[in-house]
User: Fold this.
Amino acid sequence: MIETLDRAGAAALTDEALMNDISRRQHDALAELYGRHCQRLRAMIDGVVHEEGETDDVLQEILLQIWTEAGRYKPKVGKPLGWMVTIARRRAIDRLRRRQAYSRARERYGRGLVQQPRNLRREAYDPFVLNDLRRFLEKCIRALPRLQSEAVQLAFFEGLSHSEIAAATHAPLGTVKTRLELGLRKLTHAIRPLRHKI
Assistant:
């Protein structure tokens, strides 16, 4: 009965009042605001990224940003929904651009492999070179934080997809993607000085 009254009271609050409550770290206010607008936000994000898993990730990022930046929201600038839609659009476009940049980089890499002279390609597959490279990569992966290392090993040495890694490690899909992204960034940084030798 009390819980029902609480929900009815929250529903009677304006979005502006909920933003004020969120800035004072009231979880129920964020849940209420999310409940009111999640379908609109989800539809807008999905219209940009066109992938359900990424839509969920962007929605999670938006909620975190609303939670941390609610105190900066100014009612004079506009309605909370407009503010949230702006955040959602920016984050969705950023996500799409990252995906497109990754896809272009992968295509360039593939074209580069095809265009290499045959003797260079044979050298790259020399068993000694591959063995040294594998040992170096394993050492770099072991230097990563445990959860990032685990995600990278499952993805690249066991061939698991993001969702399979999430199931194997009992972690949310967004968390797995973040661990992989951070781990790969650190590996790229470690390999950068040796790129011309590999």
